[in-house]
Specification:
By secondary structure, the protein is of the alpha/beta class. The chain has helices at about 10-15, 20-30, 45-50, 65-80, 95, 115-125, 130-140, 150-160, 180, 185-195, 215-230, 245-250, 270-275, 290-300, 310-315, 330-340, 350-360, 365-380, and strands spanning about 1-10, 35-40, 55-60, 85-90, 110, 145-150, 170, 200-205, 230-235, 260-265, 280, 305. It holds the Pfam family Glycos_transf_1.
Length: about 375
Amino acid sequence: MKTLQIGMDWFPDKQGGGLDRYYYDLTRYLPQVGVEIAGVVTGPPTVSEQTNDQVRAFAPRQSSLLKRLWGARQTARMLLQQDDVSLLVSHFALYTFPMLDQLDHRPFIVHFHGPWSLESIVESNKSLGFQARKAMERAVFSRANRFIVLSQAFKDILQHTYDIPGERVQIIPGGVETDRFATSVSPEAARAKLQWPQDRFILFTARRLSKRMGLGNLVEAMASVCQQYPEVLLMMAGKGEQEQALKARIQELGLTNHIQMLGYLPDQALPMAYRAADLAILPTLSLEGFGLVVLESLAAGTPILGTPVGGIPEILRPFCEDLVLPGYSPQNIASGILEACSEKRHLPSAQVCEDHVRKNYDWSVIVQQVQASYQEVVNEDS
């Protein structure tokens, strides 16, 4: 089976979000189960060389929208003419839209990573372009034989927001490279390597610094937490448009000794950062389709508290109910952290965390489910 995988941005170039990370991992693991890849993304010209011509960049990601759309269309046309592609797979509606008329009658699957049009409103509080984005999504979705989502939460969005019949939607959770995160380094050694203090209770979060990630509420929660447990230290990794606002609020609340903003942490530094923490935290407000950082933290042996938003509780509740916060307000987040500090909340051991993720979410497990879904759609079409 050969697939044309339509992505967004090339992860090693942008070090982007969950969609880019998922696409990058999927294109590396699918060939291991007999699925050939022809991929298209934005990125540098070196993408083709990095992937032995499996994935090609149709335009630099900083290019104008028109250049990116034209590049996606032309590159897809070339690949569809040259290669025996038996299945088309979309991960991002924007770059799939300009090639819709070239799909012919090939079977078509959409990996739905989130409501692109709705996210634009949540992030910026602006409706500019919302209708155009929604129209593009609907045009792409109308051609799909099947949708793959990471959680029931996103299946619900497809059904209720885009009117997609439930029988066309399959839930396959995200995957993680457990070997990369399951480091044998002790938390003490990890802290020494990162030059983090040994005598503090350390919380860690790695998020894009945007509104829907809930980091403002986490900062507010820390004001309450540190009144009772002044030894608590929050390490916050990430970059984004909320950076200056968060720094200002930390200063206003007098939390400069309790919250350190680390800036962007490269992907290879994350396993050590998770390992060095006593507890990770995910304070998302909305539209969290899965929460890959949940798997990354658990794979590193560090329990993580998450808000009951989107796909987060779908991962955490079957594993450990106490890892799900009562809500996403500052009070809810503070309550969860305080209960963890006082041992009123059960935190699973490092080994239990690692074993759970390896058994259920390692890419070697997940990719077989994706391959089976692809094969089923191809067989139905033949």
